[in-house]
Design goal:
Tetracycline Repressor, domain 2; single chain
Length: about 230
Amino acid sequence: MANKARQVKRAYDSRLRRERAEATRIAIAGAAGRLFAAKGYAASSVEEIAAAAGVSRATVFNSVGGKPELLKAAYRLAVRGPGQVNTPLGQQARNRRISAEPDAYKLLAGYAGVMVEVGSRLAPLYEAVRAAAHADPEARELWQLITEERRAAATGIIRRLSERNALLHGLSRRAASDILWVLNDPGLYQLLVTQRRWTKSRFRTWLVTIMQTQLLEPAPLRARQSSR
């Protein structure tokens, strides 16, 4: 009984350590993202990030790494959200349900909703990564990866629409992927919501409408409205 109790306690202590370590990593990544968005990648120091996260400089390096790793961790946190940072966006339960949606109009409406949610977290940091990519090789590598991931996500959605025979007549899958790749750019959120002060609701409605009209065969008005 004593050995079993010790094993349970060790397992419990180990779980608590993992949870604390994960919480520390999230706090550091969040602090890094806020500083990179506010000051820029080059102007933000590891010391400032440590202070903003309430940890030591050594903890930053031990938990996450140097500035390139901090930028990647901050981006991953912004895309996936703090509650699911270890689960890629496309594998999260809600997004799997959206991808499996049989109605093409509803599928795109759901996808647009995800883009708005992610954009609200990501847009300022996205612009910081874009700016850093012009001067920093490691930031440029991350920017290229981001661009490829957005393209892959767009291609996956278009494949599902094509499987439903819903793509606009005469529109190739390649051209459709190009269109959706442009529309899933978080820079649009930054321009219209952050800079032009559109509400999230207005932006989402616009995004749903333009995705549906550019990509899908026309549907009755009632079907379009019910999918939003």
